[in-house]
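Homework help board

Subject: predicted structure for assignment chain

Our instructor gave us this sequence and asked us to write out the predicted structure in token form, then describe one feature. I got the tokens but I'm not sure how to describe them. Can anyone check?
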Amino acid sequence: MPGSLEPLDLVGVQIPYHFRCPISLELMRDPVIISTGQTYDRPSIESWVATGNTTCPVTRTQLADFTLIPNHTLRRLIQEWCVANRSFGVERIPTPKQPADPTLVRSLLSQAGSHSNPYPTRLSALRRLRGLARDLDKNRSIISSHINAREILVNIVFADSGLDSELNREALALLVMFPLAESDCVAVASDPDRVGFLARLLFHNSMEVRLNSAALIENLLAGSRTAELRAQISNVDEIHGGVIEILRNPIAHPRALKIGIKALFALCLVKQTREKAVAAGAPETLINTLADFEKCDSERALATIELLCRIPEGCSAFAGHALTVPLLVKTILKISDRATEYAAGALLSLCSESEQSQNDAVAAGIMTQLLLLVQSDCTDRAKRKAQLLLKLLRDSWPEDSVGNSDDFVCSDVVW
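My token output:
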């Protein structure tokens, strides 16, 4: 198969066929040898195996094992070729970091989890594991695949009833890099002392510790299968206040907005405790920071606003903020279909409960936005919300606008 490939032309220079991955046909950056002796680019062959394939892509021979051996000789030849063709704009591929040895990972986890080891030894092991996890996604996968990895880390984080030590904090920073199994969520969420410890960490002097605590809380809420477990976490008043305080200080840390809104959204998915988020100041904070979120986080923020608008306390709090309605109107059709749907849903709740919100929406130009929305290719749910809003606001429109909008106001609602 490699011999049948024609050299690929790139920026005026031909890439030799033996430098190209037989799967992706791209220049290999991390060539590895599999059990059949064939060489592939590491990401390509890992994806091939991850999708359930058990044969060599070139020879179709059954793989004896799935060990990947770095082809250092070929990588150096590719690097030399890149340097030789630098004048054609070819950049030298960096020397890739090699994945961690699973045996080393097992040893480090054992050192960290053993109470018989000296404190410095356990702390050093955790720091090495965290460094490996930060270096490569593959390393995170290797650590996560260890049968007791999460259990070991959970036990260290909450050792001695949640003693705030450097060891706890290092284990927490590592634990939040992995999704939690349901058993891990049960082990934490069902223990009030552990949940209380996470709540206290949300007010820690270190912003990194606060963010890691918020991230773990979000992981716990996402991984808990039962409403009872989620409620046990979200029922703690301090958790809402701590998460919202993170959102109020986005400049303090680049991860603050992303982690804060993920945690707050997860908390607000629990219906029974949404009023706690409102009492902690979520409406004002969300409106004040809405313009600072990136696209994905803006969607999550708007979804959170819509959830809080579904309870009387939340609806009243948002209606009382002068910028709420203008910002939501401005958001329609500006960010994404999902963002539009959430904004329209929040406006529907607000305008259903407040005549002032209706007037504010009309003054902010909602009529034009809604008419464009019902004619767009957005979701059926967004169109249904837009049509309901059009009917609700009809009496608030200027007289010269109503006549031109009858077709939309009287159209069938999409359910």
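Reply (TA_rk): Your tokens look well-formed. For the description, you could write something like this. The CA atoms of residues 319 and 357 lie 6 Å apart. That's the kind of observation they're looking for.
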